Amino acid sequence: MLRPRFRPGWTSSWKDGAAADEEEIGKHEDSITHSFAWPGVTIDAIRIPDGRHVCLKRIPCRAEDSSEVAVTEFFSKDKQRKDPRNHAIPLFDVLRAPDHCFMVFPFCRSLISEEPYFETIGEVFDMVEQALEGLAYLHELKIAHRDCTLANILMDADRIFPRGCHMDNSDRDADGRELSSVRTRTQVGGAKYYLIDFGESVKFGPEDSGIVETWSKAGVLAPEMLSEDDIRCYKEYFDFLLPLFDAMMDEDPNKRPTAFASLEQFRAIKSLYSRMALHRRIRYSGWCTRYKPENGVVRTFRDIKHWAKQDFHAHYMTTRQLVLAPSYNDRRARGPPHHAPGYRNSAEPRSPGRRIRARGSGCGRGPSAAVALRR
């Protein structure tokens, strides 16, 4: 089921006329147009049986003729899905039409969105490790992704945004309101990251070497490293990774480490970091829209606040008393009646969220806090 704006017979939920100013209209979820995340290809929806927030991607051919569908289905088979190294996004279903089809995925958060920023070094390490692990797994199965950019890595943010997040406005929740109650990756026990978009992927046969012999710009410089925009704010925190980065960016492709070798080298480097180093706060510079440049007083205040928060969550994780808010999809599955027919009108008042006590440690799959606590 699509958002109200895209259902047949939709009429706006705000009053028409001169009295309806832009600010008032903007309070309504159905005023948000579909213009952000590849609008001609993807759209979000609600799976009616359980109220789960999903994403649909249109493939302009039959499912049987699409290599992207074939590769995605391969990674969603039971054998591959049970492997913890598999970071390909799960495929829920394929909706077939005569000349095209739709793949149905869990709705995830783009890393291009500003919120939530990485708070600690350990959170960045967790994302890098999962991405390298996912690539190494692909290569082990003789599949080359060929388009592994930041835009093609998504994060399962279900618990980070307990009120959901909007597909077309990164500053709004699923009901069109301003984001609130946003948690950090450490607070929720870490995030799961997925590789997406296998449209350029190639599956090699058992006898194929997997080496592309045709010359390309990759022979001069790895294409994903042509710009340093994605890493410029982290350089001062990850000096130990520079030898690995330099090797992965070698102009001679034959000298670059394999994905598995890169993963092993990365894990060896990560093991050198102490618990305190993993929890160190990342101070964003002036280009970041979240923070202005810090003076001495502001930096001291934020450092104290950061370490107090880190100590609090580390204590409750070790004592198994971490209180977690239910995820957005958990809330929808057991939610009030407005969850059944679709999205809530953003002008309606919010109901107080329920809180649940985690029975386990609250740690996810290798988050910064969990990694530090295992040391």
Automatic annotation (TrEMBL):
It comes from the Eukaryota. Residues 1-375 form the Protein kinase domain. Residues 329-375 are annotated as: Disordered. GO terms for biological process: mitotic DNA damage checkpoint signaling. One of its GO terms (molecular function) is ATP binding. PANTHER family: OVARIAN-SPECIFIC SERINE/THREONINE-PROTEIN KINASE LOK-RELATED (PTHR44167), PHOSPHORYLASE KINASE (PTHR44167:SF30). This is Protein kinase domain-containing protein. It comes from Dentipellis fragilis.
